[in-house]
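name: query_chain
kind: protein
chains: 1
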Amino acid sequence: MNDLLLVICNTPDKESAHKLARLLLAEKLCACVNILPQIESLYTWEGKLEQANEVTMLIKTTKACYQQLQNTVKTNHPYEIPEIIAVDIADGSPEYLNWIVNSTTIKCTLSE
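structure:
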């Protein structure tokens, strides 16, 4: 199944992650969102080294839903430029992978 993605997105806090996750799930743009506890991020922003505590979201979706998912995250994310990284899911339990496909909206499949 090469039409599945794992999308990684960091948020500033648990509340932001929960809000985004619920929105993505309500719109059936993904099957599941894992919200990982606080992580520490170090990065360069506007020429300065920054350090922040963040919450990571692991979002399981299809390639057909990705563009809508990305637009929804960008529109509703508190960061000016949110981290949105999509990684192909190369393999996995067939039952789980089928569940991802069956849990996303038919709209995504038709708009591909």
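note: Residues 63-76 form the longest helix (14 residues).
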